[in-house]
Structures are given as structure tokens and as C-alpha cells.
Request: fold
Amino acid sequence: MLDRYINLLKSGEVVAFPTETVYGLGADAKNPDAVKKVFEIKGRPSDNPLIVHISDKKQAKYFALEISDDAHKLMDAFWPGPLTLIFKKKPQVLDIITAGLDTVALRWPKHPLSQQLIALAGPVVAPSANSSGKPSPTKAEHVKEDFGDDFPVVDASETEIGLESTVLDISSEPYTIYRPGAVSADEITKIIGKEVIQDSGSSKDETAKSPGTKYSHYSPEAKVQWISSGDTTFVDEALYLLHSRPAPRKSDRVIHYEGNFNKMAHELYDRFRHADHQNLEFVFVEPFSSEQLQNPIVQALQNRITKAIG
Ligand code: TXA
Ligand code: MG
Reply:
């Protein structure tokens, strides 16, 4: 089933494939022309570096200058899985991947199809498989929405987590989380016994350490807004995403997650896209309490929703 996609990757073409977080737009990480196509297809600014996806720990050695004891501990604890680690890079890593930085981001995804694909085609760069600025794809049909019906996608229905991986910079201390995801700061601290800083980049600063954080992201055409606490009116031309407060009425535009934040994360980007299919003007989201924000997936939701609000 994967043969066609493996051949495309080996011949320098771009292929979308599922991971446990979101679909990725893959290209051979050792072929500069193939990597260039990824930037072109996505319309991605060339100063925003890509994550290299690998399928075993050994492959990290080609890209990472040094793999510290902490790095080994983190890899053993969380790989394969939704944690991207940033290392100082080896000189042989293509500059186009790292956007000229002296670091490289590595991740070993958990989805069996991504593992097979990488094991047979070699390491691949893979940003989320959406046009730049659109919500990340969690279904093969989202990829086709952005890149056309004939675009090669390894179709494996819906991705499990629905939000992108945690990005952790371990290239210098103190270690910094640039993007919260399913793996939390607390879990990381438990493994290495060190505090980590959270810097998920509200700054639009040119010198942002993780360039991706300065671009607007994950946004549907509909305006995303938090529901203000006293607001009890529900308008028609909007989608409501609730998790705790009572729903005013049954409607397919009022979605209630009943405290199931994993489900909310799993569906968020699909709901955003669906709001646009229905030409809705707004997506209103119930804010999270500080207690709910103890949950790592709620932190990731808060980060993505805040970025979608812009
Ligand atoms: O879950 C994921 O990570 C998905 C799936 C496909 O694996 N991939 C993904 O890639 O979300 P992308 O390109 O959409 O987001 C990668 C983020 C960007 O914000 C980028 O700026 C940052 O990682 N990044 C990549 N390399 C970096 C580096 N060397 N230093 C700092 N940030 C880096
Ligand atoms: Mg992305």
C-alpha cells in the first residue's frame, strides 16, 4: 500500500502522511530540491524551519551534533510520540531545512504508517500538511481541500491527538518549550529533573527563537473569539465550542465536549474548517479555568485558540 508513496519520496516528490498529531507534508530530508518543494506547496516563509521526522533513535545521529544524557532520557521516555526536540545541528544538515539556524528539530512520530514510510524512504522533513496559515489537517480530506484532490496522501482517517507536537529546545539551557503539545512541561521535568521555560511566542518579534511562533496560525476564515463570562446570548451565524457551562439549546452549531478535552483537541481543527464550509462568521469558544489549564492538552488548546484569535 505504501510502495507508491515511498517511490514518490525517493524520487524527490512531496507526499502527505498521517502522524499521531496531524498530517505531515513529507519530503526527503537529504534532497534540497524536494525540501524546497515543501516550502513552495505550503506557501511557507523560508525563514520558518522544518522538523525532520525519523523512525529510530539512530537516525538522529546524522542530524544532531551531540546527543546529551538529557536528550537520551527524553527520547527514551517520549519517542516515538508527540515531542519534537531541538538540537545543535551537524554541518551536513541542509540549510533550507533549518532556515539557516544552527539547530535542527527532530521527531519520531508514533503512527505506524509514518514509521513504515520513514523506515523505507529515509528521514523526511514534514511540516503540517496545510497551506500556510490554515488550520492543520487532521483528516486526509483536509489535505486535499488545501492541495487538490489528486495530491498524494497516505489516507489513514483521523489523526489521534489533533494538535501538533510539543516543541522543546534542548540545544542550550535552560530548556525551552516553544509550542505546547500533548507532552507537558511537568512530564519533561519529571524525566530530567530540570525545570523548563515556556515560551510559546506571543511576540511577533523578528528575532523570535522559534520562527514559526511569529506567524499567524491555525486560523479559519471565521473570527475566533472567547465567550465572555457574562455572555448568555447565542447568535445563529456562529459555531459554539463549549466544555463546561450548560448549552443553551441542542443544535449542530453548539458543540458540548462535557469536559472531554482530548476530544476537543482531536476535533478542533476540523470544527474550524467546518465553520468555514458553512460560511459562519464566528467561532466562539468557552474559556478555560486555571484549574483546567493544569491539563497539558488544555494548555495546548489554549495556545492554538489564542493564536487563531490572532
Ligand atoms: O506534530 C507536529 O509537529 C507536526 C507533524 C506533521 O509532525 N508537524 C508540525 O510542523 O507541526 P510545523 O512545521 O507545522 O511546525 C514546526 C514548528 C514551527 O513552529 C517551527 O518554527 C519550529 O517547529 N521549528 C522547527 N525547527 C526549529 C528550530 N531549529 N528552532 C526553532 N524552532 C523550530
Ligand atoms: Mg504547521
The longest helix spans residues 261-277. The radius of gyration is 19 Å.
